[in-house]
Design goal:
This protein is mainly α and 223 residues long. It is built from twelve helices and no strands. The longest helix is centred in the middle third of the chain and has 21 residues, at 96-116. It is elongated.
């Protein structure tokens, strides 16, 4: 930095070193200085946002990620971090209306990311998860199906997908995913098998449904 005082990348690397050493005040000072070197670069704003995220000062993190996006609206990394900041702000909020508004803002950012980067598995997962917990099961199933296509090993996303499919009555597809989930996630095995039984019953496969309910009752290892 002494040799190349105006090199933004070097200065940010130094800041990252201080962050790794947990010397956050020094890191903040260096990033702030870096921001003044080139105000048309989003990198310093993203770095400062990362620092505030680490400190759990999510409002300041949000502001810096938005500044980065004002400079470059196509910066997917900044938008991912902004969506995450909104989500964490929502989790901290005690007012229901404001919390829902923040969740919706997070969802809007994930929606933009899936449009910008259709191969971004995390964006489809986060989008689907928010829709699932918001009770929008049809849209959740669409997002989570895209996630599974991109990330077949994503067991938790598959679990949300399976539940969404069961909620909208798409039992044939739900059963396929539930059978995989029951093998991959021990902690939800009983719930997955129970939903399989419900789907079998709803599709009038009564004998198979009874067998599954009996299996659930007999398996004392299931929590």
């Amino acid at each position: 930095v002494k040799k190349y005082p105006n090199d933004l990348k070097i200065r940010l690397n130094l800041a990252n070193s201080y962050i790794a050493m947990d010397e956050l005040n020094k890191a903040e000072l260096i990033i702030t200085q870096a921001r003044e070197i080139d105000k048309k670069s989003p990198d310093a704003f993203i770095a400062l946002g990362d620092l505030y995220q680490k400190q759990r000062v999510y409002e300041l993190a949000r502001m810096n990620f938005e500044e980065a996006l004002a400079i470059n609206p196509n910066n997917v990394d900044a938008r991912v971090k902004l969506a995450t900041a909104y989500f964490r702000l929502a989790n901290q909020e005690t007012d229901n209306d404001l919390r829902n508004e923040l969740y919706n803002r997070s969802l809007e950012e994930w929606n933009k990311i899936t449009q910008q980067d259709p191969q971004n598995a995390r964006a489809f997962y986060e989008q689907g998860r928010l829709l699932f917990f918001g009770g929008q099961y049809q849209n959740a199933a669409k997002s989570l199906n895209n996630f599974i296509l991109l990330r077949p090993s994503g067991s938790l996303g598959r679990w949300y997908l399976a539940q969404s499919l069961e909620k909208i009555g798409n039992c044939d597809s739900a059963i396929k995913h539930l059978e995989i989930v029951a093998k991959e996630i021990d902690t939800v095995k009983k719930q997955a098998n129970y939903l399989i039984a419900l789907c079998l019953f709803d599709t009038k496969q009564y004998k198979e449904a009874i067998n599954m309910f009996n299996k659930i009752s007999a398996d004392t290892n299931l929590a």
